[in-house]
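SLC41A/MgtE integral membrane domain-containing protein
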Amino acid sequence: MHNGKHEEEDVTKEPVEHLIERRIPWLMVGLLGGLLTSIIVSKYEAILTADVRLAFFIPIIVYLSDAVGTQTETIYVRLISRKKVKIPKYMLKESLVGLGLGVVSGLLLGIFATYWLGSVAIGFTIGLTMLINLTIAPTLAVFIPSIFYREHADPALGAGPVATIIQDLLSLLVYFFIASVIIF
């Protein structure tokens, strides 16, 4: 991808060392992003201390946001490699898909949290967080690879780690913001 052309490389013929060299920089981005995410969570220690039950949902909030983004990104990277997609139209469509997924998962998780923990406020916080995060995730999953593609970088290699870290950070910021408004 260094020559300004988007070519598909045959990774089955590349030496292992070359594959490691190409992947390490993006994994370091993930490492730094993970550390930043940990720092962000620590900034909300007061909220978590006030109601530790909020911590129960961090894994599922981050996971579902990432899963929706990864699904979108996988399909999108395949489409742009074949040049079969109009970016704005596809981004809108995927955002609507994310909205639908957010409604369904937000309702399910919100109801579950309400009954399990006996807290309408936490249930509403979880539900609204899922709605917002799953609507944002597909937008990022289209936007980030588009930037890589435009800059002649391999979106299949670098966009995933970058989009995942951004999504992780955003999903937690959204969660803690909503919790601080609704619960505290």
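thats it. The longest helix spans residues 87-117. The two ends are 49 Å apart (CA to CA). bye
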